[in-house]
Design a protein that fits this description.
single chain; alpha+beta; 9 helices; 66% helix; disordered N terminus
Length: 416
């Protein structure tokens, strides 16, 4: 029984007990370009949060200047004048109506949403690597099955050729045997093309050039073993685990705070302003107390008339809040749908694989029996062809189904 605890789900690929898969996923989590972009967006959001939070505190600006002026007059030399100036300006907006606090809440929520976005990419990346790895292993098995069937059908064609020379069969049987053999041979390039594409996709997911994983996956191996049962938990736990749901909630919180920022524009703003400066006609004068001056006092501003722009902005932000709420609700529904579909697909594919396994046993026996009876002259060659085609179809479907079972387990882990 597989564990579905939070810690287990965080590294669910370890439950599949496949060291190669674990190594591929760990490499992808280090090198993937999409994940690095998501990490960069976190740094950007963190810095933006710092910019917004800084507005809650006083600001101080320093300045300095030197000016030389010359005034021409009727004399030959004219008049020159130098002016040295230095000063500090300070300001602090008193957050009377919470606009700055709401802006800080919005930036914090956006930062938290960027973290959840990173985790969403993390979850999707691990699942994508696993699904492509399962494709590789499934296609390798299907390719091996097709090549083995080609060998068996080649032996059958050779058998009919010998029987034709002995006068036991007609050319018609030989042609049908060759047609069956060549049809199987023709399917090999298609499977090989899909196998190469799956490997190249794996290389790209790991941030490498195509061909990077070829040597690592050259040797065909069994698919990861899927547990028969998995503990799922209740739907509410699924919603708390999923980063896309948490991210949508943080986006809603950010937009709700932005409504408060827009509303605060309806009310007056009060700031404390202060300055201290020195003006002198010489550099030495900058250090003289007689040339110093300062000022301090409150500043009041109120956007009394703006043709309804502030209220329109409030409506805009409120509409965006409603959109964020609907997006949050839609994300919840999609999460529950994905989890339910993944559970159903995993359970039903297991049933299908069991039926195909039983069919495989019967197809193997019937193929052997048909060949024996054909050699004994009890049945015609069409029965042999039908048995071989059924055997190939069932065996290929079984290999695909086994891969689908593991792939559906990966999708289930992702949904959780």
């Amino acid at each position: 029984r597989a564990d579905a605890s939070k810690d287990s789900l965080a590294s669910w690929w370890a439950n599949l007990d496949d060291p190669t898969l674990v190594a591929l996923i760990e490499t992808a989590l280090k090198n993937n370009k999409d994940l690095k972009q998501a990490a960069s967006r976190i740094r950007e959001a963190r810095a933006q949060r710092g910019v917004t939070e800084a507005r809650l505190w006083p600001s101080v600006d320093g300045s300095g200047s030197y000016t030389r002026t010359r005034t021409e007059n009727n004399s030959e030399t004219g008049t020159s004048r130098e002016l040295f100036a230095a000063g500090l300006d300070a300001g602090w907006e008193i957050d009377l109506f919470g606009g700055l606090r709401r802006a800080t809440e919005a930036s914090r929520a956006s930062y938290e949403a960027s973290q959840e976005d990173y985790l969403s990419v993390h979850v999707s990346l691990a699942a994508e690597v696993a699904l492509n790895y399962i494709d590789v292993r499934t296609l390798q098995e299907r390719l091996a099955i097709t090549e083995e069937n080609l060998r068996l059908q080649t032996e059958t064609w050779e058998l009919t050729t010998y029987r034709l020379k002995a006068g036991l069969v007609t050319q018609f049987d030989v042609d049908r045997a060759k047609t069956n053999m060549e049809e199987t041979r023709a399917s090999i390039p298609t499977v090989a093309t899909r196998l190469a594409a799956a490997k190249n996709r794996l290389s790209t997911l790991m941030g490498e050039y195509p061909g990077y994983v070829d040597a690592k996956l050259e040797e065909a191996k069994e698919l990861p073993l899927a547990p028969v049962e998995i503990a799922l938990g209740v739907p509410a736990e699924t919603l708390r685990r999923r980063p896309d749901v948490r991210g949508a909630e943080r986006e809603l919180a950010a937009q709700t705070a932005k409504v408060g920022v827009a509303t605060a524009e309806l009310y007056p703003k009060l700031s404390l302003m202060g300055s201290i400066g020195i003006d002198a006609t010489s550099f030495a004068g900058l250090f003289s107390a007689n040339n110093r001056g300062f000022g301090i006092g409150p500043r009041f501003s109120w956007n009394i008339f703006n043709a309804g722009a502030v209220r329109s902005n409030i409506e805009i932000q409120s509409a965006r809040q409603e959109q964020a709420l609907l997006e949050y609700e839609k994300t919840i529904l999609a999460a529950l749908e994905e989890a339910e579909n993944a559970i159903t697909a995993y359970v039903n594919e297991q049933k299908r694989a069991r039926s195909l396994n039983d069919a495989m046993t019967s197809a193997t026996d019937s193929t052997k029996l048909a060949l024996v009876q054909y050699k004994s002259g009890l049945i015609d060659f069409q029965a042999v062809l039908d048995a071989q085609r059924t055997y190939l179809s069932v065996r290929d479907n079984l290999a695909t189904s086994k891969g689908t079972v593991v792939a559906n387990l990966v999708r289930l882990y992702k949904a959780l």
